[in-house]
Each structure stands twice: as structure tokens, then as C-alpha cells.
Amino acid sequence: MRDDRGSIILEFTGFLPILLVVGLAVIQLGLVGYSFSQAGSGARAAARAESLEPGTGAGAADAAMSDWYDPAVSVTGGDLVEATVTVEIPALIPFVGLGDAARTVTMPADED
């Protein structure tokens, strides 16, 4: 019978990088989803605020979103108010760009 002491730690050490990569991928997917969710929340808030009081959309979008993000807000008025919010998706791995998350919401303008 041979001595098997220490074989488990060697197997775990070989499998550890795979576990870390899978864990980072899951967290990164969560960040992508969170970014799109935050862009949608900001766009809804901007469109609603702009439809009620013109000129307040950008501030409402910024207030409705997490402080992690620096949103780019574009609001157009008229009978229908359209707000587009774009945020950069944060990356866990440095120097890897994942692009932007953008959402657009259209609401009717308030008729006061």
C-alpha cells in the first residue's frame, strides 16, 4: 500500500484556478446585469421627471442610480419625452473594456 498523504492538497491546488475563474465570471455577469438595471432605473427617473418638469431629467437620473456610476443622460422633449441613460460597465479584470449599458424610456409629457 502506497502513501497517499498530500494528494488531496495537490488536486485542490490544480483545481483552484478553475474555481477562481468561474467565480470571477459569475461576479462579472452580475455586474453586467446590475449596470443594465441601473441604466434602466436612471432612464425611467429621467423620463418621468422631465415629463413633469422640463430640465430636471438629468438630476433625477443621477439621484436614482448608484454612486458607482457616472451616467451620460440624453433627454429630448415634446409631446413624448425620451430619456436615454448610458453607463460604463465596470470590469473586474483591469484593462478589459466591456462597453456600455444603455437604456431608453419614453413617456408622455404632462399636460398642465
Largest sheet: 3 strands, antiparallel
Strand content: 15-25%
Instruction: Count up the helices.
Output: 2
Query: In which range does the helix fraction lie?
Result: 40-55%
Task: Label the overall shape.
Answer: rod-shaped
Q: Biggest sheet, strands in spatial order? A: 1-2-3
What is the helix/strand order?
HHEEE
Produce the secondary structure layout:
Elements: H1 7-52, H2 57-64, E1 72-76, E2 80-88, E3 100-108
Antiparallel strand pairs: 1-2, 2-3
Helix pairs in contact: 1-2
Protein name: TadE/TadG family type IV pilus assembly protein
Domain TadE-like: 6-48
Pfam families: TadE
What does this 3D model show about the protein?
The structure is a single chain. About 50% of the residues lie in helices and about 20% in strands. By secondary structure, it is of the alpha+beta class. Strands 1-2-3 form a three-stranded antiparallel sheet. It is rod-shaped, with a radius of gyration of 22 Å. The mean pLDDT is about 90.
Brief overview:
With 112 residues, the chain is of the alpha+beta class. 48% of the residues lie in helices and 21% in strands.
